[in-house]
Amino acid sequence: MATDLIKVEIIQRQTVKPSSPTPHPLRTLQLSVFDQMIPSEDYPPTLFFYATNNNVTGSGRGAPSTDMADMRMKERDYCQHLIQSLAKTLTHFYPLAGRLSKGHDVIQCTDDGAEFVTARVKCSLSQIFEHPDPEMLTGLVPAIGQPDGDGDGDGDDDATRLPLLAVQFNLFECGGMAIGLKMSHKIVDGTTCGAFISCWAKTALDDGDNDQVPSVIPKFDAASYFPPLDFSNSSQLSSAKLVGISKHKYITKRFVFDASKIATLQSYLASPSSAHAPTRVLAVLALIWKCAMEASSKSSNIALGSRPSSLRLTMDLRRRFEPPLPQNLAGNVVSNLIVIATASLIKGQEESDDETIDLKDLVAKLRKGFEQQKETYSTKQPFDSNKAWQRVQEYRKLRKNVDMDHLSCASWCRFAFYEADFGWGKPAWVSIPSIPLKDAVILIDKRDGKGIEALLTVSEEIMEHFESNPELLKYASVNPRVM
Fold it and tell me: pTM of the predicted model, to two decimals?
């Protein structure tokens, strides 16, 4: 389905404020050093699709009717129900209803509200599921957090006026629905995003119980664990702009790894020297990284291994501290693991003169590199924020090395997104639209919780090599229909 075939009509915009005012002692939230280093324009998007044929039990809400009048009435009911439950959820996630301060180091939690957009989509879900183009899906998420007009992509022109949360409730002709979210990365990492979705869905499913309190109340206190730095008289923080945003043509494609294919890949990569086969995330990342290095070699017409390659993966820090940090600690509680591959991984094939990257060796290098960094990373209090900032600067310097390839990775697996039942059943599909990042891959669970969907963004030329790589196609399908 071509991008220009989907028509999205915005029919209403409104502001949703917390159902109860934020107490005055909580109205100023100091950001942690990790929050400070996140660019203000970074709004990761997520989409939750709900088909009309979901089986709904125990919620008191059936699938939308095919009768047009009845369907419109149910749509209004669903929309109002989402808004009311969102207002209640914001009382617990109150910073998302605030605004970023001028210095970008504080959230003013003054209940300015989240943006809620209602849209009508001139197609059916089946059309999208048949051809799920990530570029096409961009119209289903709110248009906030875009780079500003001055060309530097810092988003500073309107950052203090932008909502930190925006929702787009999409209504399809077939009666299906999709909830598109954009949440400011300044205050939300993947774990916090998952907690927000779970809380909102549970609040909606409980059908208006005013006394309902989420089982896990978020704790917005990351600054006490990761002290902020003073950038008020320095231009240093400007160098932490979103790495990888580009005005050049990059495209996003979806590669789907079924559970059975991942199991086969894990079995192949199991090493006698290791007690366990690699995790499914590690196995998939290693394969994608290998294909990226091969694609770069072919695209540049240079010998394989003549250019080193770096891979960056985000790491959740909550369980790595001694004692462990609270699991309900909200904000950005993540750091980066970085591994560099060199020509030492290149080997000649047994039956030809061609050279290749040994995937088993690459997995071993990834596993060893990650473990070494986990061991050396500071996991005790008090936390040294200056060292954390130094690590970011070192990576930025590495990323600027034009004689090296780079791949940035994030795993959204195990976030329980497919449990998000707002009252009309669990999602038929959860995905991510195209995002303006180059040389990046995001992994997200398939609906069965065992397979993986990889959203890869690279140049058009590099993508051509990915789509024709026989080893990748042995384990993954290129943008198959949503089952």
Answer: 0.90
